[in-house]
Amino acid sequence: MIKGILITLEGPEGAGKTTVLQQLLPILEKQQVSFVTTREPGGIRIAEQIREIILAPENTAIDGKTELLLFAAARRQHLNEKVRPALAAGKLVIIDRFIDSSVAYQGYARGIEVADVEMINNFATDGLLPDLTLYFDVETAIGLSRVMSGDREVNRLDLEAQDMHQKVRAGYQAIAKANPQRIVTIDASNPLEDVVAATVLAIQTKFPELF
Ligand code: TYD
Question: Is the full-model pTM beyond 0.85?
Fold first, then answer.
């Protein structure tokens, strides 16, 4: 079976990963790479519906474990319907957020045991791991100020305390340290063009055949 490549983008709020992804698209198109980009939670109808439940500002009653399970449900359906078929067709699939978001947010930040989050992740994905994860690291204050000054909608999780965002960042840094083979850290406090260049370089280094 042909196997594609799975790249995931991770980072705290305001790291700019979604903007970087948009800048990456024309570069991949120019190289005639056959790719699919998508996001979590969402990417397909059922998972977008779950996303609405998770992120609705009025749903403050959702506790950490419910949130974890909803993310996992959205993840599994999205993998089954969109990601695995694209990988099986030999495509490059780029997902904006994946398993490490659950470990950073629901694990390190919300305080669910990291081992439990990993177990749920594994259950939802049947053990599928990204071939490469780009972690966009930015200081909490810079990330949050970008979120608040941008024109993007502010969701329930954006409104959480700064303390939570600091824990998210510390969580990501721990995950990156523990998975040096899979995760490349990109300094996202730099100007956008530098961040895009670092992103392209990381992909080129790991998959020279793509360019
Ligand atoms: P989104 O608007 O996509 O944020 P961003 O542009 O920062 O990716 O909202 C996704 C939110 O969901 C974001 O705050 C991170 C959070 N999240 C988790 O807490 N756990 C998860 O497993 C995933 C996939 C996302």
Answer: yes
- Residue 182 near residue 129, CB atoms below 8 Å: yes
* Nearest Cα residue to atom 22 of ligand 1: 102
- Phi and psi at 38, nearest 5°, equal -155, 180
Domain residue limits at 201: 5-210
Indicate the pLDDT class of residue 57, thresholds 50, 70 and 90. very high
Q: Which atom of ligand 1 is nearest to the CA of 39?
A: 3
Q: Write the pLDDT tens digit of every residue in 105-143.
A: 999 999 999 999 999 999 999 999 999 999 999 998 888
Q: What is the CATH number of the domain that holds 169?
A: 3.40.50.300
Confidence label for 151 from pLDDT (cuts 50, 70 and 90): low
Residue 121 CB–ligand 1 contact under 6 Å: no
Q: Are 94 and 17 in contact (CB under 8 A)?
A: no
Domain count, the chain: 1
CB 10 less than 6 A from any atom of ligand 1: no
Give, using CA atoms, the residue closest to atom 5 of ligand 1: 13
Q: What end-to-end distance do the CA atoms of the chain give, in Å?
A: 22
